[in-house]
Amino acid sequence: MRYSQLVNPHNTPQVSRARTVFEYLVIIIGIAPMALMVNWVLLPHAFVGGGLTGICSAIYYLTDGLFPSVFPEYGGAIPVWLTTFVFNAILLLIAGFTVGWRFCIRTMVGVAAITFWYRVIPILPEPIIDNAWLGAIIGGFVFGLSLGCVLAVNGSSGGTDIVAMIVNHYRNISLGNIMMLCDILVIASAFFLPLPHSMELEGGDPTYLHIKRVLYGMAMTISYTLAVDWIMSRLHRSVHFLIYSSKYDEIATAINTTVNRGVTVLDGTGWYSKKPVKVISVLVRKPESTLVFSIVHQIDPNALVSIADVSGVFGSGFDKIKAK
Question: What is the reported pTM?
């Protein structure tokens, strides 16, 4: 199935169902790297990241050893998967009444997926990245790439993602920036948590170690914020085609029916020949440009094609127009 059939909202109902299945698979599978980074990097290093993940991590550290008979496999601490599920169950109601119940259903899938992956992926006793700074940067970047893929198909893993999507629904503000603002207070709370054993072994001024722990969380959050914005901008990039060809009618029809994009045919005059010419103007998503080139090459290999990146396209089939 072509990319355009999966991402274009103007397809037939049958194709739309395929697109929906594709998006749910992206949500379920795309969330797995997030859980990997939490259970293999964040928790073993005792980092406190941003948002709901940071809150659940803080609860995990604070309750260490308090419930040995209830959660023996987690050292008596309340597991992250459980607090994630409970908090998100409450936040789902917010998503339903603000962004919409369709988003709420997607959030339910995301919450179920992140809870499942947190539960089945074991928490390593030692992080897979020994260096704390590298762990924060690399772990945050992978976490952000995973989250960006989920957000790109209008999904969510819950937590502050819901807040970000709600604000972005009404205001054209960067998702990454919204989440970073929501994360600052959570990360700062790490200063007041007991130091992990690994940091106590370092010795030195406890205040310095607490500040260092906050900086780890900030580094991880900045890394995943940049990753989210990067992947969102890559997936939503659009291009503008200007196609000059005597077979403009065939090319325009093929683009319209195959890529499912609107086509405008402009009148022009070739100044050298003084003959009238037709110019095809079409806007498509970046991944769809390969299909447009293929159509033009098959119909008229001698056509003149101009392509330009555009910073944003708003309207039917692209991004929604939002009031500032």
Answer: 0.70
